[in-house]
Design goal:
By secondary structure, the chain is mostly beta strands. The protein has helices at residues 10-35, 76-80, 169-172, 262-266, 404-407; strands at residues 38-50, 58-60, 67-75, 88-92, 100-105, 107-109, 116-121, 124-144, 151-159, 162-168, 175-183, 191-201, 212-213, 217-237, 244-252, 255-260, 271-277, 284-290, 297-299, 305-327, 333-338, 341-349, 362-366, 373-378, 380-382, 389-392, 396-403. β11 (175-183) and β12 form a beta hairpin.
Length: 408
């Protein structure tokens, strides 16, 4: 029996290969269209202005456009791998040669080879190029608030007091002043602090962000002093005649307001304006003195001269006898005093003699709430206001209280 040898024809092999390719294409379309399809995604990317490429002496003013909208496409897997920080929108200035408004293209740097850029909006930006200018400007310190009550600001020192300001020429022209604004909060000691510098236009608007400053802040030392109202006094040389006294001394002004370091102010209790010889004194004498404030003390009043009026008088002494009264005695008691009169040695100014009412002297003991018995009570004296001194013959009174029924 003969064996039959079955062989595949070359045509059969060819069609098998064609079929395999066709199936592979079908699978590829399936995977890409169903499982991992092509999609689009919108990205918002900040625009990076590469001002380092600007020619020397030119500067870009604040741009209007800050970001660009980019539409990209790719498979779902590839889109998921995108980090927006890696896609850059860059404006280059290497071709700029003049000032004014210039339209420049936005260049997109895409590091993802399997991601396509479909659209960019905007594609161009309008930038304003100006001359780069540097000026010197004085810094003005503005102090807001107050130190603690009883203290004043004696002054301040800033360092530095001049700074360099670099920016667009048109912006530089808008500068009105350069300030360092310092806020006080009930300070009572000198202090040093760092204060930010601000650039203001004529309307008071803060335009600091438009410029590069040589100093973004300055050091300010504030001197704070303690205040005090100090009495003015006068000294006397020599002694007055016997029975003569200084009845009144009037200084105009009588006090001055001063300021100084805390330790100096605390130790200052008076300011002596001068010395007067008692031999020069009459009944009424007037003197003028120019005086100086002690070293390290600052005068707050514009006062350098004081007028002093001095009144002298003679002391007169007179003896009078005054009965001792009893006050507060209950109606059921009787009282016996020992002594029942006291001698008063009264001293007063001779100039007041005619105005003194000697009958207004009263001496009494207070027996309120006391019952029968023996007591040694203090004497209470009432006297006119224009009496300088009184000596009493007896400061205590022996008091005996008895009931009325026992004496009847």
């Amino acid at each position: 029996m003969k064996k039959i040898n079955l062989k595949k024809t070359k045509d059969d092999t060819f069609w098998l290969r064609v079929l395999s390719v066709f199936i592979a294409i079908i699978l590829w379309f399936y995977v890409n269209s169903i499982i991992n399809p092509i999609k689009k995604k919108e990205l918002i990317v900040p625009i990076r202005y590469n001002i380092s490429t600007l020619p020397k002496g030119l500067v870009m003013k604040e741009p209007d456009a800050r970001e660009v909208r980019i539409v990209v496409s790719g498979t779902q897997d590839e889109l998921s791998k995108i980090d927006e920080k890696n896609i850059q929108a860059v404006v280059d200035f290497s071709e700029v040669r003049q000032t004014g408004e210039i339209r420049l293209p936005i260049n997109i740097n895409n590091p993802y080879h399997r991601i396509n850029i479909e659209s960019v909006y905007p594609k161009n930006v309008m930038v304003n190029i100006d001359n780069l200018v540097t000026i010197q400007k004085d810094v003005t310190v503005e102090i807001d608030g107050n130190p603690k009550k009883g203290y004043i600001i004696n002054g301040y020192q800033e360092e530095p007091n001049v700074i360099s300001i670099k920016g667009a020429e048109s912006d530089i022209k808008e500068i009105s002043k350069c300030v360092a604004q310092l806020n006080l909060s009930l300070n009572d000691r000198p202090f040093k602090t760092s204060v930010p510098v601000k650039i203001l236009d004529s309307r008071g608007k803060d335009i600091t962000s438009l410029f590069d400053l040589s100093q973004k802040s300055i050091d300010v030392y504030v001197d704070i002093l303690k205040t005090k109202q100090v009495p003015l006094t006068v000294k006397f040389k020599g002694k007055l005649e016997p029975n003569k006294v200084l009845s009144k001394i009037v200084l105009k002004p009588s006090t001055v307001n001063v300021a100084g370091k805390e330790e100096d102010i605390n130790s200052l209790n008076e300011i002596v304006v001068g010395a007067i010889d008692t031999k020069m004194l009459q009944n009424v004498s007037t003197f003028q003195f120019d005086f100086n404030i002690p070293k390290n003390i600052k005068a707050l009043d514009n006062v350098k001269r004081v007028v002093i009026t001095i009144y002298t008088d003679s002391i007169v002494q007179k003896s009078i006898t005054v009965p001792v009264e009893v006050r507060g005695l209950s109606s059921q008691y009787l009282v016996n005093l020992n002594p029942d009169k006291v001698m008063l040695k009264v001293k007063y100014y001779q100039s007041n003699q005619n105005s003194i009412d000697f009958s207004s002297f009263k001496a009494y003991v207070d027996v309120s709430n006391l019952t029968q018995g023996d007591y040694n009570l203090p004497l209470v004296l009432e006297k006119p206001n224009n009496i300088e001194d009184v000596e009493v013959s007896s400061s205590y009174i022996k008091v005996t209280i008895t009931e009325k029924s026992q004496t009847q």
